[in-house]
Specification:
Elements: E1 51-54, H1 55-58, H2 65-76, H3 90-99, H4 102-122, H5 139-142, H6 145-155, H7 158-163, H8 170-180, H9 185-199, E2 209-213, E3 218-223, E4 226-236, E5 248-254, E6 258-259, H10 262-275, H11 277-282, E7 285-288, E8 295-298, E9 309-312, E10 321-322, E11 336-338, E12 342-344, H12 347-358, H13 363-372, E13 376-389, E14 393-395, E15 401-403, H14 411-417, E16 427-430, E17 452-453, E18 457-458
Parallel strand pairs: 1-16, 2-13, 4-11, 10-12
Antiparallel strand pairs: 2-3, 3-4, 4-12, 5-9, 5-13, 6-8, 7-8, 14-15, 17-18
Amino acid sequence: MVKKSPLFVHPSAALLLPLALLASPALAQTTNVKEDSVVLQPDKVKDDAPVVETMTQANLPDWSVANAKALLGVVQSVGDEGLFAKDYDPDALQAAIDGGDQDQLDRVATDSFLLLATHLRDGRTPNVARKQWFMTDSDAQTEPLIALLTSALTTNTIPAALAGLDPVHPNFVALKAALKTAKTPADANAIRVNMERWRWMPRDLGDHYVVSNVPEYLTRVIHGGTIIATHKAVVGKPSTPTPQLNPMATGIILNPTWTLPRSIIAEGIGATIANNPARARAQGYTWTGSGKSLSVVQQPGANNALGVMKMEMLNPHAIYLHDTPSKGAFAAAARAFSHGCIRTERALHFSGLMAVYFAGRSPEEFGEAVASGKTTKFTFEQPFPVYVAYWTVVPGAKGGVTKLADIYGRDAPVVASFAKPGRAAAVVISPNPPAVVPTVPVAATPTTQVGKLGNGGIY
């Protein structure tokens, strides 16, 4: 059984840090801190090309009428999964069951199964509607569809095989239950959107990870499948939105330096360096070059924009979790203020958890490193994922679900995609090419002897 990892429950464990932490440098209560800007990447607009297998490669057993009827039952009830039965052509499947033609039944049922399994495993939503979504999902490698179908046909377990593609997280279960009692079409669509987002992620998030839900302005630390800490977060403002990604965290950096991006140098510190270098030095800045070649680094200290810690999580978006000297921002209910990175409340506690639980350091070692004021990196014994997620419907504290503000307007494109065809099947079946020797040599093409049938299947 896969161990479930609750997100929205009260923590059952906590870290007690030593008094040495109190010796850390006092943090200035500045405002308008400018930390690293997100490196905006273009949205992914193309879906993955389907894998094509021949009937010989797939080696599928025939569909029995009982298995086909079981598949039809799943299709007819797939609304409970937040999907749409019409996508999987139940009328054609019923006709194939009634028609008595084995080849037709095999083609239609296989086509319907593979498309439905694709949507259950990977999500129905095309990439073009997944705004700023860059999470990687390995489910295609861990849950190959042809092997799943072959096993389900052999063991007569079609419904169980498809149900086994659902995300294992209890939050998905809560959304699925809430969909059945949604009061309005808008409520139902909001839930469907977030069920989709769960499918865009790995089916099992793991036992050890950090997750930041951007619309909720919260970051949670999960260790051994249990929440051990919840921290308020400041996320990107709408002009510099935080993208969705799941990089591996490799270490925690205490008393970090901050290398300023060109955009922030141009916003003001470059002029300060040119006109009042003494003031820039007093704020901890050091630099080399000038003009367009100016390179600026802020040294550790009370004014450092990254505060006392930075989570190392390499990614092309320059997104990471870090501290901030602007503590007042955490008092706001809506906390979309940053340049894209995620500022973390109670950063000493957060980084202490990272050092002790993930880097194998003692609380005393951690406290001494913070108090030294020197840049120190604690490398994690095993890297773990950081999920920067975007759920606008989450389980409520008293049951049911709660709708959050869609701060970046990312729900509407997903809702709009519901009225259009979804993603194509991840795997399609083609017949073996006929054993005919052409009289004139021809170049092989990917479309030779391949035709379309049904819901995107190829035969």
